[in-house]
Amino acid sequence: MKTLFTxxxxxxxxxxxxxxxxxxxxxxxxxMGECIVKLxxxxxxxxxxxxxxxKAHVYDGTLFHRVIKDFMIQGGDPDxxxxxxxxxxxxxxxxxxxxxxxxxxxxxxxxxLAAARDxxxxxxxxxxxFYLVQGKTFTDEQLDDVEIKRLKFxxxxxxxxxxxSIGGTPHLDRNxxxxxxxxxxxxxxxxxxxxxxxxxxxxxxxxxxVTILKKRESKKLEKELNTQTKL
Length: 231
Description:
CATH class: Mainly Beta
Low-confidence stretches: 11-17
Radius of gyration: 20 Å
Strand content: 15-25%
Largest sheet: 8 strands, antiparallel
Number of strands: 12
Mean pLDDT: 91
């Protein structure tokens, strides 16, 4: 009887842990579409901070307040939701920073989520502001130029191929923390990046809401993504 009970417990805990998603995901929704972002486990400080803010609805109603085509779309400032046309979004209104978490394997390919920051010497990230990379494609000659003038290090061959085929913003690598990537709905980034702007601010507000995917939805998504990878 004891052996049977132990077996049942083992099956139960195995099924519970097997059901746990490998990553956590958030949905960023706007009037111009929505995307789902996978948060990297390799950058736990940024991952947990983003989840904390999303759970507290800090991002809901905020704007993508800075948009530059072929570069990135930036948002996440709580003050940007205020209807004051004279208000300039972009300051760290949550009043704290997150220590940099640079990882050589995480780079600024198209679709990544990264943390905005000011010019602090530690390169610590804004407590709330983030950007999604649109970027552009590069040639080998252009990447060589970026290495010499901006990076002072060699871009790995595998990353070069991504910058040449998919695109991104390589000059930001190891300067701004990358902590996630769009796994579904990348077209939203392209649409927002194409809006009319005045001094990099969209003429028509692009408002967002951010929600955390539930465990069941995350597992379903990971299964779908794994199937696509095998095809």
